[in-house]
Amino acid sequence: MSFPPSQTILLTGASGFLGRHVLWHLLRRSDSGTRVYCLLRPEAGVDISQRLHALLTPAGGPLAAGARERCHAVSGDVSEAGWFHQRTPELPLAEVDRIIHCAATVKFDAPLAEARRINVDGTRYLLQLAEELHARGRLRRVDYFSTAFVAGKAAGRVYEDRLDPTQFNNTYEQTKWEAERLVREAQQRLPITIYRPSIIVGDSKTGYTSNFRVLYWPLKVLASGLVIVVPADRQGIVDVVPIDYVVEAFEALSRSVQSIGKCYHLAAGPERQSSCGELLELAAEFFGVRDPWMIPPQVSYRLVRPLLYSVFWGKRRALLRTGELYFPYFAYRASFDTSGARADLNGAGTEAPSVKHYFRNVMQFCRDTNWGRRPPAG
Fold first, then answer.
1. Considering only CA atoms, which of 353, 355, 378, 376 is closest in space to residue 365?
2. Structural domains present in the chain
3. Assessment of whether the complete model's pTM goes beyond 0.90
4. Which of 121, 104, 116, 100 is nearest to 37 (CA)?
């Protein structure tokens, strides 16, 4: 059973990398009766309608005639209590029958209070709105984007239907875990589906991305040719998925009523996940640099790190601090089970590709845009 095609959707996080692609996909695939209302934080001196228009252009190319007219900007901050009770004449709450929550801070080094305000409180307030809409009998579904990295420091197989207590590498993982716990509790009362993407990179065909963080940062450093030693475990698990797979899998799963109450890993999974060794070899070959030596991160942290901090100052020390944010993922030991997603996507023609099949496209986009410093051609 599928949902009726025409919907009135409230989307949060449209200004982010994932949310922008979800929005473009909705406008491209939905029928002319579907309207999308995008909650955007107000910025001084910036018209939110113009901001939304600018967000649409680079994400997915041209849209069909009339698609932009079905997309509306709503001024508000999801992390403010009761934002939906404030005067928002541009948002017809009584007509909203679907909520898609993409808004989050993805900064690994955000202070815990800030990360909780956005990721946990923002989710809590959105669930309060969902409760009100559901009580009116209007709400059909809520789609919540979590992350596969709620697994934190866990090792071994991580399952879609579990949210186990764990330790965390950063405030992003911790607050997304706390937020998903709220969502799972509300899932007992509301029509909610949870999606857990792993590391998202650019489009598998064009390489397009607007986000050059996470995996991109260490690859950019490697591309400079100045790196000869990397604190990484060659066998460390790196689960990477392209943005087009994430949004296509999301769309296919969200069309079905049967997805309500479930949680899906939108990940490469054990069958197609990569490793630190494979990724570094692919990058070294593409950029024509030497394949770096790898030393265990714990050895690097204990012996090499103090030495580097004693001789590095200014920008080099800042670069070292930035790199440390990503060190836990250079020796990652969790593998994301995708059994549920693969079973429910069976027949949809959507499956996560292996990174080696699209890696060159992603890196070519980085080279062509100088890692986001130049606009993409065309």
1. 376
2. 8-210+240-271+334-353 (3.40.50.720)
3. yes
4. 100
